[in-house]
Amino acid sequence: RDGLGRVAAIVRSMKEFAHPDRKEMAQADLNQAIKSTLVIASNEYKYVAEVETDLGDLPLVNCYAGEINQVVLNLIVNAAHAIGDVVKETQAKGKIRVATRVLDDQVEIAISDTGKGIPVEVRAKIFDPFFTTKEVGKGTGLGLSMVYGMARQSGGDARIESGPGSGTTVRLLFRKADVEVAEAAGRKEEVAAPPAPAKPLSILVIDDDPDVREFIVEELEEQGYRVQGAADGNQGLAEIERAMPDLVIVDFIMPGMSGAEIARAIRERRPEQPILFVSGYSETEAVKRTAPDAPLLAKPFRTEALHRAVRGAMADKG
């Protein structure tokens, strides 16, 4: 029963991340956004860092509510990468600390890491578009500039504290929401679901993570697809022997057979089989090297990105 409750909680967190309420200025619950994002981003940090949270009692804030999860995700991924550079080739783990508090008429999110820190000479450029401290090919430089842009557009601010060997803390400030406006925002509008496919196309989802697999299966079934799940490559290939699906969605990194090996085995049997790879942010370059022409969906993703990727991968299926 506890296991089923855990799965339900994780799938709920995934849905909260995948279904942002609004793309315009609105009111948001920052603590809930943080909790949901930490759950679905766990694969990005769990091998290199422990996460500590200190979430204060917060009012709603004014911000671009549809972007806040992505902003928190960018900062968590950056923190995990910074710690990974320090603890690689060791058994040690660093720490990511996420804290929220009220400061007068503003609310602050502070995300700290125990990475190697940012040199003084580059700190002033850290929020500039296309500036990155990562190796060539491993960063676009858009993550922190997007964080800064969203905070400023929301009437808030973003600040960074860091130094060589002392880790990094990014502080985001948002304005408290006006009480009357916040209450009005609580009455959510009904949004029409995307139209179901003209005919019930079949999809096989191969992913060793039961939470991710269940989330994808549920989302696609709600859109009218016939969906089967498989926990590994052998199970997936057995499903394909029983009934050839219109699309196979496969996680790139799995124990046993990797996504690339599963795709190769599928294509040996059916060269024209549409395949959609799913990967974590840190695996994207590896997927592109292995299968440069294959459709790719980066985790974590929002619902519209999942539907768009599925439609694109099955464009010739009608």
Query: Got a strand count?
Result: 12
Question: Helical percent range?
Answer: 25-40%
N- to C-terminal distance:
41 Å
Q: Major sheet: size, sense and barrel closure?
A: 7 strands, mixed
Counting H and I runs of at least 4 residues, what is the number of helices?
12
Element-by-element helix/strand order: HEHHEEHEEHHEEHEHEHEHEHEH
Radius of gyration: 21 Å
| Oligomeric status | single chain
* Residue windows where pLDDT falls under 50 for at least 5 positions: 136-142, 179-194
Percent range for β-strand residues: 15-25%
Describe the overall structure:
By secondary structure, this protein is of the alpha/beta class. It has 12 helices and 12 strands. It has helices spanning 2-18, 30-40, 42-45, 68-87, 120-123, 143-153, 179-185, 210-222, 233-242, 259-269, 284-290, 303-313, and strands spanning 25-28, 49-55, 61-64, 94-103, 106-113, 157-162, 168-176, 202-206, 226-230, 247-251, 275-280, 296-299. Strands 1, 2, 3, 4, 5, 6 and 7 form a 7-stranded mixed sheet that branches. A 5-stranded parallel sheet has the order 9-8-10-11-12, sandwiched between helices. Strand 8, helix 8 and strand 9 (226-230) form a beta-alpha-beta unit. Helix 1 (2-18) crosses helix 8.
